[in-house]
Design goal:
Elements (H helix, E strand, L loop, with lengths): L1 E4 L2 E4 L10 H5 L2 E9 L2 E2 L2 H15 L7 H14 L5 E10 L2 E10 L4 H6 L1 E10 L14 H12 L4 E6 L4 E4 L3 E6 L2 E5 L9 H13 L3 E4 L3 H5 L3 E6 L3 E8 L2 E2 L6 H18 L1
Parallel strand pairs: 7-8, 7-14, 11-12
Antiparallel strand pairs: 1-2, 1-6, 3-4, 3-5, 5-6, 8-9, 10-11, 10-13, 13-14, 14-15
């Protein structure tokens, strides 16, 4: 298995990161997870723009342009003989320099997972919309990981955070949407969430297709009363939710979710053409 490390394709076992670097000691850095679909890297420009913005906020030196990093990604996927899966581009601080580490993983979301849907519950922890790093996908992802692990130990697939004002925010690894009476509803960025790339695509699709949509503040009770719920991220795409806490949702009648899934797949095909 190969990785790309500071512009060089190397064997995974031959990589060394200094234990005294800020990236190792404090999780000082950020990352992007990018979809590889039938050999094509999807929405790279959007991911790079978010990386660039995040590097500015963290004071990280970004000395590689989008074309150069994209070439690194393709070189790595070809070396690892991967056509479908995920690419993680990580920046980490090392004194006055920045590590650039690119890794790959195979896709784990099969069709039967979408047919079954995700079971979700509310997380115990809460998001703070006024926190310094809201909206930056930092390497310090431990709160998300611990929350997700706890949910999985309880038999769920994802956990949903409320914020400190008891408004719905986001999932541990996803953005959240729900549907009520044909209208799509999703928490606004001000609720303390990371605005995902697929989240933005869903917003675009709804706007172009004239589907009623509202971004705003929503309560736990409003989410529990939803007709449909779905989650988004770059590897999940659009994942239907089959239950939230003890409430079951009928995936056979989630027509808005199904239409959005079709529209997103059409976007992927156009991205490849």
């Amino acid at each position: 298995m190969y990785i790309h490390f500071n512009g060089k394709l190397v064997n995974k076992s031959d990589t060394h990161i200094l234990p005294g670097s800020e990236g190792f000691l404090y999780g000082y850095g950020l990352f992007e997870t990018i979809k590889l679909y039938q050999g094509e890297i999807i929405f790279f420009a959007e991911h790079f723009a978010r990386m660039e913005d995040g590097c500015k906020k963290l004071g990280l030196q970004l000395d590689k342009g989008p074309d150069e990093i994209l070439n690194y990604c393709y070189e790595l996927t070809q070396a690892n003989q991967l056509t479908n899966g995920g690419i993680r581009v990580t920046f980490a601080k090392n004194n006055q320099e920045t590590y650039l580490v690119i890794t790959t993983r195979a896709s784990t979301y099969r069709e039967e997972v979408y047919q079954k849907g995700f079971k979700i519950l509310f997380a115990k922890a809460k998001r703070n919309p006024e926190a310094l790093l809201v909206g930056v996908k930092t390497n310090n992802y431990l709160e998300n990981l611990l929350t997700l692990n706890e949910a999985k130990q309880m038999g769920y697939d994802e956990a949903v955070f409320l914020n400190v004002f008891n408004k719905v925010s986001e999932g541990a690894i996803s953005n959240l949407f729900f549907v009520k009476d044909g209208e799509i509803l999703t928490p606004a960025q001000e609720c303390g969430l990371l605005p995902g790339i697929i989240r933005s695509k869903v917003l675009d699709i709804a706007d172009k297709r004239g589907i009623p949509l509202e971004t705003g503040e929503f309560t736990k009770e409003e989410l529990l009363n939803a007709d449909e719920i779905f989650l988004t991220n770059s590897l999940l795409d659009i994942m239907p939710v089959s239950s939230i806490e003890t409430k079951a949702l009928d995936l056979k009648s989630n027509h808005v979710t199904q239409n959005l899934q079709t529209e997103l797949q059409n976007l992927y095909r156009r991205e490849r053409s």
